[in-house]
Amino acid sequence: MTVMTTIEDLRRVYKRRAPKMFYDYTQSGSWTEQTFQDNTTDFADIRLRQRVAVDMSNRSLKTTMLGRDVSMPVALSPVGLTGMQSADGEIKAARAAAKFGVPYTLSTMSICSIEDVRAHSKEPFWFQLYVMRDEAFVDNIIQRAKNAGVSALVLTLDLQILGQRHKDLKNGLSTPPKPTLRTMADLALRWRWCAQMAQTQRRTFRNIVGHAPSVGNLSSLSSWTAEQFDPQLDWGKIARIREKWGGKLILKGILDAEDAVMAADAGADAIVVSNHGGRQLDGALSSIRILPSIVRAVGDRTEVWLDSGIRSGQDVLKALALGAKATMIGRSYIYGLGAYGEAGVTMALDIIRRELDVTMALVGKRDVRDLNRDVLLVPKNFEGDWA
Prior knowledge:
By secondary structure, this protein is an alpha/beta fold. It is built from 17 helices and 12 strands. It has helices at residues 7-17, 20-26, 34-41, 82-85, 89-100, 114-120, 135-147, 166-171, 181-188, 191-197, 218-228, 235-245, 257-265, 287-298, 313-321, 331-340, 342-362, and strands at 47-48, 63-65, 68-70, 74-76, 105-106, 126-129, 152-156, 248-254, 270-273, 303-306, 326-329, 376-377. Helix 5 runs parallel beside helix 17 (342-362) and helix 13 (257-265) packs across helix 14.
């Protein structure tokens, strides 16, 4: 195994090993991909203040997220089709996160079901909910999450209508891949992936198939999901879900200070500043650029986390220094998963931990909870002067 020193190293191996349609599914944004690109490049505009002659011993990355002790302020984001990147991928990612001491979030659109992950993970995990038109299905999946001991519900707010991702349409994305000539030629080069998939029965959306009315196979699943994302999701429906759930609630997909205030008013225990990894509204601001205004708007009323664009421990540090209490990563751990399975997820987390630890020391801090804007050099126009 080649020494992996950066998340980019993992991405390159992942690209070689994953089928093209699933690599493209992860490594793409909507429309022109402007926001997808800005999510990562905008971090580079922020520089760091090097400090010297300070005590750098006895450093700690430990903190809490929703009152839960974590080894570092990073959680694994919900990612659909994770079990297509590596066989039983959700189970592998959940186990790696539990061993590392960080939270894992299972997606509604996962390949492994809530029950699958519960049976194979010793630690409580979080569950991400997409609100569907079918209230009975929504109520049932919330109850299933409760039964599995899920410790927090992550309600995604920015996918009422699906943003167009050109690569998915051109690749004919499907789960499992359809046996076209082009697909079969691609799979012939991914023998590791094929060998893994041959050993598992988890190859479809197991949170939905067999649980939604009249959805018993992939054909019926496709038509059901195309009609089910609820375009009428509003604060009233959010209140209903909060009451139905009754536990810790995280609202994900906040990209505006006014929405952040309304999320706090709605009783969110945490909000996630996110643009869905640049996969929804192309042309929206990057998460890191909008973060400071959201932190100012909500103050200490709720925990503010940042998602979208993090590819290093330095990115994590910059988000924390700009006011986020914690962060979430998606693509960074998927690269590791697709490259080396469970061990690759651990590699991704370890890369981020090492970078965060060393960078924190070199900017003169010993405790991750002490990071603030003083460690950064931020361009005066970083947040923009928008009319």
